[in-house]
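Query structure, 306 tokens:
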């Protein structure tokens, strides 16, 4: 069996490569920058080839370093999972990261029910549209949008991406919105977004060529929901996420037509953490909550991507 290089040198390389900065790697590892550089040099001497290209005060991975980093990062993640599974990870904090719209609109209003069902588990919820690096964070599970099939991750399909125009009832009534074509003359958030063109086509509205309009573009449906609830405009949003607001009458979906975005929402975590109690309990609870919405949403959104 090939002898494995000293773990300290491998660890220094992984941190420096992941962060692309020797100083930040030193801070993370509690070492000096000189010590990190020494460990990396030792590893390079052992391999007989450079792992970094050093140029004008900065470093970047060499071709060899790029080939080596994914396997090394996965190995450290697997070791972390192995130690965590011995017991302490079973009862600690469940850290969830969710895309902003789903986390702030659907999950935040229901996560208290999960806490009540499992009072021994503390829950930490953060929201971001950036992809989570499980190897470089304490996140246990993430709610992610995309096509699925991410290497090294277990991905549970939740629902297909789907949108429909949503607004405040006062906006609908004041603008006499009665048929899809009426939306061409009212204030629409992100009016030039392709989702609008796709939905209008699905609703049978002729928009060729599509009219270009000035309008407000916001970063997430969470911000759009705030804007439309205040009576400003109508937005292309996901009714499943805003079911509570629709049921309460704070928002309305004027038409039943949906546009399918071609993406989906998934629950993801590292493959090596399958079976960890806090992750499995959240996974089971999340699917049960999804099932509660199944009968009130179009059947097509529950069909996994092909």
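Result returned for the query:
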């Amino acid at each position: 069996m090939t002898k494995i290089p000293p773990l300290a040198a491998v660890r220094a390389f992984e941190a420096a490569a992941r962060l692309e900065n020797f100083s930040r790697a030193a801070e993370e590892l509690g070492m000096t920058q000189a010590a990190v550089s020494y460990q990396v040099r030792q590893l390079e001497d052992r391999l007989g080839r450079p792992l970094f290209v050093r140029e004008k005060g900065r470093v970047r991975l060499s071709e060899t370093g790029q080939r080596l980093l994914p396997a090394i990062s996965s190995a450290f993640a697997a070791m972390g999972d192995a130690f965590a599974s011995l017991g302490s990870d079973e009862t600690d904090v469940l850290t969830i990261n969710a895309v902003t719209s789903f986390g702030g609109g659907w999950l935040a209003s229901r996560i208290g029910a999960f806490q009540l069902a499992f009072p021994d588990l503390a829950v930490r919820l953060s929201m971001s549209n950036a992809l989570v690096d499980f190897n470089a964070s304490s996140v246990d599970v993430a709610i992610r949008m995309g096509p699925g099939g991410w290497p090294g991750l277990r991905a549970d399909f939740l629902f297909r991406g789907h949108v429909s125009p949503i607004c405040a009832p006062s906006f609908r009534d004041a603008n006499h919105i009665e048929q899809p074509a009426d939306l061409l003359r009212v204030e629409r958030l992100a009016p030039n977004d392709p989702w609008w063109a796709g939905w209008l086509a699905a609703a049978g509205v002729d928009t060729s060529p599509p009219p270009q309009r000035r309008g407000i573009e916001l970063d997430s449906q969470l911000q759009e929901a705030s804007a439309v609830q205040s009576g400003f405009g109508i937005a292309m949003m996901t009714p499943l996420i805003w079911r509570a607001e629709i049921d309460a009458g704070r928002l309305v979906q004027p038409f039943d037509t949906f546009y399918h975005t071609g993406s989906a929402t998934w629950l993801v975590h590292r493959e090596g953490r399958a079976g960890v109690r806090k992750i499995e309990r959240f996974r089971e609870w999340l699917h049960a909550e999804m099932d509660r919405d199944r009968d009130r949403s179009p059947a097509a959104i529950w069909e996994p991507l092909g």
